[in-house]
Amino acid sequence: MRPDAGNGPLPARTSIKVQTVRYVEVAVGLPVQTTFHYSVPKQLQEQAAVGKRVRIPFRNRQLIGYIVGVVGRPEGFSVKPILEVLDQDPILGPDLVELTRWIGKKYLAGWGETIEAALPGPIRKGRLMMKSRSPEPAVEVSPSSPLPLNAEQKQALDSILAAVNRREHRVFLLHGVTGSGKTEVYLQAIQEILSQGKTSIVLVPEISLTPQTIERFQARFGAKTVAVLHSAMLESQRLQEWHRIRLGEAHVVVGARSAVFAPVQSLGLVVIDEEHEPSYKQEDAPRYHAREVAITRAKAFQAPVILGSATPAIETYYQATQRRIELLPLRSRIEEVPLPQVEIVDMRQEFGRGSRGKIFSRQLEETLAQTLTSRQQAILFLNRRGFSPFIHCRGCGQILRCKSCQVTLTYHMDTRSMVCHTCHSEQPAPEICPKCRSEYIRFQGIGTQRVESELARLFPQASIARMDTDSMKARGSHAKLLSAFRRHEIDVLVGTQMVAKGLDFPRVTLVGVISADTALNLPDFRSAERTFNLLTQVAGRAGRGALPGKVILQTYTPHHYGIVAAGRHDYLAFYQQEIEARRQCGLPPFTHLVQLTVRSLGENKALEYAKKIAQTLRRCLLSEVQILGPSPAPVHRVRRNYLWQLLLKSPEEVHLKEPLAAALREVSASRGCRLAIDVDPL
Hints:
Elements: E1 23-28, E2 36-39, E3 53-58, E4 61-70, E5 84-85, H1 94-106, H2 111-117, H3 121-124, H4 151-165, E6 171-176, H5 182-195, E7 199-203, H6 210-221, E8 226-229, H7 235-246, E9 252-255, E10 267-273, H8 290-300, E11 305-309, H9 314-321, E12 326-330, E13 341-346, H10 347-352, H11 362-373, E14 377-381, E15 390-393, E16 410-412, E17 417-419, E18 426-428, E19 441-444, H12 448-458, E20 464-467, H13 477-486, E21 492-495, E22 508-513, H14 527-539, E23 550-555, H15 561-567, H16 571-585, E24 592-600, H17 603-620, E25 626-638, E26 641-650, H18 657-665, E27 673-679
Parallel strand pairs: 6-11, 6-12, 7-9, 7-10, 8-9, 10-11, 13-23, 14-21, 14-22, 20-21, 22-23
Antiparallel strand pairs: 1-2, 1-4, 3-4, 3-5, 15-19, 16-17, 17-18, 24-26, 24-27, 25-26
Helix pairs in contact: 1-2, 1-8, 4-5, 14-15, 15-16, 17-18
């Protein structure tokens, strides 16, 4: 039977050899939290082993499953035989088998779903091992040598290496202001890991960060030593890198969230850069958080973990204050380069000066002109893509919304179309109102395309580029644009959160934030934290070289504590106000949350099923668990489906997980309804 995953450390990696296997436990990539038993035909008994893929009969079809255990003869029922063993050697080592089991239990997901999240697409689809071929040509990079460390960097590195040398699993929070040299600490720690014959995993939150990060790691360790895993790669490239890692040809893995599952051997260190980033949370099942998975995986190898950030997640910094993880502060920039001066511009006053409809304040426009005259570079940040975020008729008041989702349509000037940023549907922009047939259609609000257009009008001599998901669709476009920006072929870079973190360009002396309030009014208790993080991170792109930097934040709420603290580069002041608000409201880290979302094409059907689940939970769960809802989701309709939510709160995690799983087993499925479970939702 399926063993108890527990929440303790995973066993160290060992080899598993099974000479004769008659019955196996198989996980399948379906949203079920059970495994299935199969018999092994005599001719396959020496081939079957834990970690291998098998082809199995499942109801009236065939599926690919994963052997996760060897079992005795099942009592009281007959079992079907497996049809084929697909692998000569296990594709999952014992540590990944155990890790995926732990994830399934912690995040209430299917074990098979979790295994498939850990594998490249071709492997999930049943492809046999790829034939060897010539590797992709490596990008030429100039070798780099270790840089001298200041006192704080050296103290941080010494603490990390002490844990490495003692084979001690410890979690470190490397809390350093932007430009304080966190990456150099990572590089020198990894150098020690390599000298001991071990491997390292480095996670970065954004694909846009990978080109610059890869370049730094390849320059230090060589292209053959570094493997890369992220979603923008061709499947064949990812599979090739996966095999290099599995065969021990690459010893440093750099990648986005799913790289936490890289099939490394002898793991010696895990680094999570910008650990606060929401992109480390998987949005689809299994809804794991890469930070928690990385810590658990490292524990199996008695390896340390470095969480790096200038703006740590509130939960992470709270753990440091409770001494559950070790805080390593880097309080100043390298070579004592000063942090950029920040000017907060009250746009209410700009509005009073007759600047209605203007994108740029007087201060930003004048400073940008000076920057261009001085042959320096600027970054303008707005976390809203498109040209205009909503379209409305001034005649009848109609706001144009997506027919499938309950969200406003965004006007994109380059394609002259209206786009839903939820379901990605697209339709031509109207010339007259579809409701009242008047010509009073207006495109309202500001997106990155409009900022780019206005810049071109004000500064026709400047070279301007835009970096958002619309402009970065082509493969390799991130690396090409950033390379051009580094060569100063671009004067002004306009972008969304892609430009807010991790980028290091010494000629950037001005950062302008078009609207600091974009996230503040969202129905999310983390809105202040996300605003502070983004503003602090994007401000940190300025003045990283010899030239001093300046940041201009445009806002309609200049006295909000998140904006004031970002203007002062003062994380601790923000944390103290935010943690007290969380304490008073009973929010994380003082409570644990689980969000249940019911989705159906019928609104009443979704509501009734949500009510049924709520009744069962109120009967089965302990009184310590608070059950809120059902209530409509903030975006109530997505892709023609209606969404209703329940939120569970408990001060103790133990009151939630297993009791919830048991309670949900009592709720029968409802035809046409789907239930999504999100543990520790963001």
